[in-house]
Amino acid sequence: MRSGVAAAALAWTVASGHTSSMVKPHPTRVTEPEIDFTAADEATLVAAFRAGRAEAFDEIVTRHRKQIYQLCYRFVRNHEDASDLAQDVFVRAFKGLQRFKGDSSLTTWLYRIGVNACLNRVAAKKPLEAPIEAAEHVDAAAVDPLQAVLQDERAAAVREAIAKLPPKQRATLLLRIYQECSHEEIAASLGGTVGAAKANLFHALGNLRRALGKT
Amino acid sequence: MTDHLRPDEFVDAMDGALPPARGNHLEHCAECRAELDGLLSMQREARADDAPEPSPLFWDHFSARVREAAARENRTTAPWWRTGWQPIAALAVAAASVVLVLQMRSTPAVVGPAVAPVASVADGSVDEDGSWDIVMGLASEIAWDDIRDAVTPAAGAADAVIEELTGAQREALVRLLKQEIGE
Q1: Which residues of A touch B41 (CB under 8 A)?
Q2: Which of A11, A83, A147, B58 is 20 to 30 Å apart from A215, CA to CA?
Q3: Residue A196 C-alpha, separation from nearest chain B C-alpha, in angstroms
């Protein structure tokens, strides 16, 4: 019988010519405010995400995906794993953003998630000794092929030496050299003081020099 | 000249942010200068190694993947009262069907002439009725998700409809509802 009422109400609504285009919006009805997310600051994006606006998270991903991917790539040194890891970082961020307090910047917070995810991954999975992507294509017409091969070998040796650094030194070096983070951002991402972050960088570079026979 | 730079001071020196007093030491200490040169050289060499840049198409694909994975995650971590209604609803529908069938089988005499076709279904002629096979065949091809989507109103849809009613329409609706609940 209740469905009969609903059907009757529907028939009555149609018969009376009642359509949504003919009705004024209810005065108390609250509509979602229009926000240009591409121009919004971090706090606005986070607040919008918490209010259930999925587009805000899309914008966060768009702004940070390249940095996070690059960080992951530096850790795992191949595109497939870096892509999976970067995705994992953003899914973790999606789950944790409700609890983000805003004590650090969103970038720093994402780097913290990224470094943890990367360190867990590399601890669980031994990286390729000589990743295919490390052997880059040599353009014989552009440079001296022998020189290019030597440069590639050297670059591969540097990557190999970085991969063997202790986790904190490695993370510090990658964040500083390739992500161009400030020492304060590195300290916030990895936990610890600015002085410790600087000391980690010093020791990381020193260990690289020794590993590459530069001392 | 034994007061050499500390590790953090070397990094400050690399950044060009060493305090003047310590800069003075660096200027006169060959050992610290050599160490600093080595660090700067290593930093330059590491920095020269570029990571490959994925294609622009990859980024669109990546964002879509993140969106899907986040949505999946959202579904799997939703509380039981948001996800648990599906099996409960399925059980309720099954139970209601069983009750309905039993009721139809046990009360054929009460059914009046207007519902005689239903009685003929309940009295065992179902197996002989070819149209019933067609209905069962069609029903077996319907996915539960499709049924759910079809019968589940969008969140807030009822509120939206009621808000759009005029005063007279609302009064009529209230009257109908009161009739329905027997007031």
Answers
A1: 214
A2: A147
A3: 8
